[in-house]
Amino acid sequence: MERLVKELLVPELTKILMAQKLVLAQTYRSESDRQRFIVQKAKELGVDAGHLEKAFEYSYIAVPVLRSWRAGNSKIIPRLEAGIYWYSIETSGSSLVVAFAGETIAASGEKASFHGDGYSKHPFTTAYNSFCENMTIEIRMRESFRYSSQIIDTREGILCLSIGRPDGVEVDDLYQLYGFVQENALATAARVDYGFVRISRLRDAKEGDLVRSEARAVTARGAAQGMMLEEIPCSSFGIEASITAIPYKLTAGALYDPEQSFMEVASTSRRWAFGLGIGLMKSLANAGLAQTYFVGRFTIGGTLTGATFMGGRYEESRTMLLGGGIGMEKRAFTGPVGLNLGLGFGALLFDSHFADESGNENEGWKFYTFRMGPTASVGLSLWVRPLYQLNAVAEKRWFGDETNWSVENSGASQTVFEDQPNILTDDFAFRVYVSRRFGRSPL
After folding, report:
1. Which pLDDT tens digit goes with each residue over 322-346?
2. In what order do the strands lie in the sheet with 79-92?
3. How many helices (H) and strands (E) does the chain have?
4. Angle CA 345–346–348, to nearest 5
5. Phi-psi region of 411 (alpha: psi -120 to 50; beta: other; left: phi over 0)
6. Which residues contact 272 (CB under 8 A, 6 or more apart)?
7. Are 106 and 125 in contact (CB under 8 A)?
8. I need a labelling partner for 357 at 20 to 30 A (CA). Which of 97, 205, 338, 426 fits?
9. Whole-model pTM?
10. Measured between alpha carbons, how far is residue 345 from residues 83, 302, 309, 371, 375 in Å?
């Protein structure tokens, strides 16, 4: 492909660029003379006059290329891989040269196949939408195409920028603050990074007002008028890894023991179960100080210490927990530390086994419970690096009564009655997690 571009396309592009030099070198008595000259050159080159004039404004030429396409269905994931070959327009002496400046290649994400049926109906649209988001990020990864702006004013901690919505800037975009320092008159000025900022507001253009967006410092210090900002490209998707602590206990009640008939069982002391979790988050429409995320989480874990009951005759041998949930989070920052608020819906399954004195689980008891309901959380978020945040929250749960529960002894299910004890989780939990926004979209 690159060979064909050099042999067939580059010579024609060079002719157009040389026509640009002729247009610029001419002296015209009026604008109409200039337009007539452009029309004449366009006819000679066999191109549209409007396109010829537009070509004069650009310093890069983008040549699209399709590498591969795989159609999808309910079992096969659709995949599109394509990109752009970049050619820069450079001056070499008195001539203009079209030089190869690299490539940008992107592919649609590997979407989960269980979504399948929709993909079999619209495979290209599915892959195309995913490809476009990834391609946008890949292009903005190129240093020459990153958005940049100079700080034109500072007002009570707010940085005023000259780029905005028409330039593709969005709320929640991140920018690196930097400046140049020259140690002495003979030394070359060196770039110095001062931290990063977040776009907090987009402003509509008003006559005479150069401010198109506002940013707030996250870790940046010493921001002043005239300093520069450079975009930190990132996707709206992210991932998180968490550790969750959940208190639980065995409630008081009565059990039927084949040897001793019904027995009263006292409540055990509170214990702690710990779970490791992973989640996927998607940044939504953001405004002002707050980031808004849609989050889905899954947690799996168990206990570190065991409980006993019936006077120590039975001891907890193992407990497994499975949890999950979806929800919305809002993280409001005025600096590197912010308030974290969340609302969602969760579910929790506990499966706890108690063995007899000899350690035999088959002669012990098994408790199973499943609960679900709405949740709310509050905590703090710390912006560690541009794409990383450390979060710690306390979560309140309104799970209500057990949705499904049972008790077993010696492998046989016992009759369920009201006074039977059960594993009860307290209606609160604590979670610490690290969240990371992707540099590229995973979907």
Report:
1. 999 999 999 888 788 989 999 999 9
2. 60-70, 79-92, 95-107
3. 6, 23
4. 165
5. left
6. 245, 246, 247, 248, 303, 304, 305
7. no
8. 426
9. 0.66
10. 41, 21, 33, 11, 5
